[in-house]
Write a structure and sequence with these properties.
Helix content of chain B: 25-40%
CATH class of the largest domain in chain B: Alpha Beta
Strand order of the largest sheet of chain B: 6-7-8-3-9-10
Strand content of chain A: under 5%
Shape of chain A: globular
Structural class of chain A: mainly alpha
Helix content of chain A: over 70%
CATH topology of the largest domain in chain B: Rossmann fold
Bound molecules: adenosine-5'-triphosphate, magnesium ion
Oligomer: heterodimer
Largest sheet of chain B: 6 strands, mixed
Strand content of chain B: 25-35%
Largest interface: A-B, 17 and 25 residues
Order of helices and strands of chain A: HHHHHHHHHHHHHH
Number of domains of chain A: 2
């Protein structure tokens, strides 16, 4: 109060006061104003549609949404669809292989890069570059590479090895491995970057101490360094699982869920049933199943991350 | 247990010479302290002894065996790092046993050695904790325990106490000294703390810019520093270096320097007749430790007291002489700023330096 009466009493400062209050008010409101549209978009685009999808999955919707209630009927129908079984099996097969190979390769590359080699900057960029491509581009490129008429098989045969065969993408039993190859190619650089950052954070005197004690390099990595990379492993696993569950565009571009539905994934299944096969209820039910799977992975992860934060990390 | 000889060791990173012709030699069971300011190459030298850095020139001998090409694990050494370098994911027990496990020592023996070390370092209660659950001093103990169970020929310590608070540092210093007395193993210890060096060492190597400035027993380094750099680095407050001159010799070497109150004369400084003759009438730097001044009405140094700093056991007097500030440490007395006093100097303790090279004159 004294402040205001004083500044009002001094000529020349009085006119500045309303302006200051205005800008102060603006400063207070601006962040909310700026955030409001994105908040609204998230509210409608994400949470409203989640709620809507949940409702549809409990209704008898087919070609058009119908707002009735049939309980878990669509879920029962979903789990009785052989194609959904293929999708779920493929998801586990794909996720398991994709994670194992990407993590193994990413860790190996990070360890090699960590040995103070030359041209590290260039190599890191080269490895990370696939990450900058969309899965559509990756899928299309690998479709050509894996195509027996155009890609690897053709090239090797033209070198003179006539009996060479690499036609996985045309065979239903092996096509899913082609999806794994393309996804690994795209994500290994990313896994490597996270592991490399983890390796760089390790105090070098720990390694020196182990060296003096006579531990071999593989032993040092196995007993000391890899256990220290636990947080990096956690991040990579969660992010890759999430990528694999929602890997829709890659499958669509690479195999279009074929041949014969053999590379169907929950995401392509959901798309096909909702928008192409006029079984919106089953599609919605599959979407909710996917959401629950993602939540089962992400929520414990977020929980552990946030809890570590409060521990002062 | 082993001797350690460092012969003409050089180390360069590209064009940057970090160590230049280092020569150090200590006997079995000695406690060598590498003392010097940050960046002088102490850690580099220690890492070379350990085999963690390769050597650019010269040779290192442990127990009369050239170890230049031996990997660290075959040098029979144990090292304690400034950051402790404990394995964060292992418990204290696993930390201590890791090296023994690698060397294939059976589980029973490992447990026995670990328990013995834990008892010696008073950390039996900590064995099942992770390093992150320990205080700095406790981590320090674990790092020492890990080194002890190795029974090495040579212990290497790289500034092991610099991350501890002042009180703990003094306690751990005593503990390290006790450890040395008990095990009798040769130790190389890096520090930039001159008090640590004086209290622990049997030999000190004072380093600066990759060159050993003075190598000798701590008392010698303190009493007869090789040059003005060593004189100023060791001791607190530092040795006073006063520009003065040597009087024409009459058989007893005598130096003089100016004070605002008149000329000060110190008769009978230690100097060989030959040097006294060579420097007669020329400028010298007169090195006097603060505690070698004494209050004496018949003293030969006239003093105008500028600053009085009582420390408890004694009183520091700051006065001007030879154009610099001089500190004297005296028994507490009724000192008054601005008053004139007369000090005497323990002439036999005075050290003279050549003003051109700043090295000691004998
Ligand atoms: N890998 C390296 N490449 C280039 N220069 C280095 C390297 N390691 C150390 N140096 C240089 O060598 C010099 C000595 O380093 P060193 O670590 O031995 O110093 P120090 O005496 O242990 O210092 P401190 O008390 O700070 O630990 C420093 O000038 C440092 O910059
Ligand atoms: Mg150092």
């Amino acid at each position: 109060m004294t402040d205001i009466s004083q500044s009002a009493a001094v000529p020349g400062t009085a006119p500045q006061r309303p302006a200051a209050t205005l800008s102060a008010r603006l400063a207070r409101w601006l962040p909310r104003l700026v955030m409001a549209p994105s908040f609204l978009v998230v509210l409608i685009g994400v949470y409203l549609f989640i709620a809507w999808t949940l409702w549809i999955s409990l209704s008898s919707s087919a070609m058009l949404p119908r707002y009735d209630f049939v309980g878990l009927e669509q879920y029962v129908r979903l789990w009785n669809t052989p194609r959904w079984h293929t999708a779920v099996i493929n998801l586990f097969l794909f996720t398991g292989l994709f994670l194992a190979v990407t993590i193994a390769l990413g860790l190996l590359m990070a360890i090699l890069l960590d040995q103070n080699i030359r041209a590290e900057g260039v190599l890191r960029t080269v490895y990370l570059y696939p990450m900058a491509l969309s899965f559509i581009v990756t899928g299309t490129a690998w479709k050509w590479v894996l195509n027996p008429e155009l890609g690897v098989e053709k090239v090797v045969q033209s070198w003179g090895w006539d009996t060479f065969a690499f036609d996985w993408i045309t065979r239903p039993e092996t096509a899913i491995y082609c999806v794994v190859i393309a996804a690994v190619w795209q994500s290994t650089g990313f896994a490597m970057a996270i592991f490399l950052a983890g390796l760089r954070g390790i105090d070098s005197s720990i390694i020196k101490a182990a060296q003096i004690e006579g531990a071999s390099l593989p032993r040092i990595y196995a007993s000391i360094i890899v256990p220290l990379l636990r947080p990096a492993f956690l991040s990579v696993i969660v992010l890759l699982s999430y990528i694999s569950i929602k890997s829709f565009d890659l499958v669509l571009a690479l195999t279009n869920a074929g041949p014969g539905g053999s590379t169907e994934m929950p995401s392509t299944f959901m798309f096909a049933y909702t928008f192409q096969r006029n079984q919106m209820g089953v599609g919605a039910a599959s979407a909710i199943m996917m959401l629950m799977t993602v939540a089962a992975i992400i929520i414990p992860y977020l929980y552990s991350e946030l809890r570590e934060d409060t521990h002062g990390h | 247990m082993a001797t350690l000889d460092i012969n003409r060791v050089r180390k360069a990173y590209g064009n940057l010479e970090v160590l230049k012709e280092v020569n150090i030699s200590v006997g079995d069971g000695e406690f060598l302290v590498l003392l010097g300011p940050s960046g002088c190459g102490k850690s580099t030298l220690l890492n070379i002894i350990a085999g963690l850095e390769d050597i650019t020139g010269g040779e290192v001998l442990i127990g009369n065996r050239v170890v230049n090409d031996l990997p660290p694990k075959d040098r029979d050494i144990a090292m304690v790092f400034q950051s402790y370098a404990l394995y964060p994911t292992m418990t204290v027990r696993q930390n201590i046993e890791f090296g023994m496990k690698i060397r294939g020592i059976p589980a029973e023996e490992r447990a026995k050695a670990t328990n013995a070390a834990a008892e010696m370092l008073q950390m039996t209660g900590l064995l099942d904790r992770k390093p992150s659950q320990l205080s700095g001093g406790q981590r320090q103990r674990v790092a020492m325990g890990r080194a002890i169970v190795r029974h090495p020929d040579l212990f290497l310590f790289d500034e092991p106490l610099s991350n501890l608070d002042a009180k703990l540092r003094v306690d751990m210093r005593t503990e390290i000294k006790r450890l040395h007395q008990r095990l009798g193993t040769t130790i190389v210890y890096v520090t930039h703390d001159q008090i640590e060096a004086m209290t622990l060492a049997t030999k000190v190597a004072v380093m600066k810019g990759g060159v050993v400035q003075h190598f000798g027993p701590p008392q010698e380094v303190y009493d007869r520093p090789a040059n003005t750099y060593v004189a100023r680095f060791v001791g607190s407050p530092a040795m006073n270096i006063i520009p003065g001159w040597l009087l024409a010799s009459d058989g007893v070497p005598t130096v003089a320097f100016d004070t605002p109150q008149g000329e000060a004369v110190v008769r009978g400084v230690p100097l060989s007749a030959e040097t006294a003759h060579r420097f007669a009438g020329r400028d010298v730097l007169v090195g006097i430790r603060p505690e070698h001044f004494g209050l004496d009405p018949s003293g030969t140094v006239p003093v105008g007291v500028d600053v009085v700093e009582p420390t408890g056991p004694d009183t520091l007097i700051v006065f001007a002489a030879g154009g610099t500030e001089v500190v004297a440490r005296l028994e507490p007395f009724d000192a008054q700023v601005g008053r004139q006093e007369r000090f005497s100097v323990k002439a036999e303790k005075v050290v003279l330096f050549d003003p051109a090279t700043e090295t000691r004159l004998d």
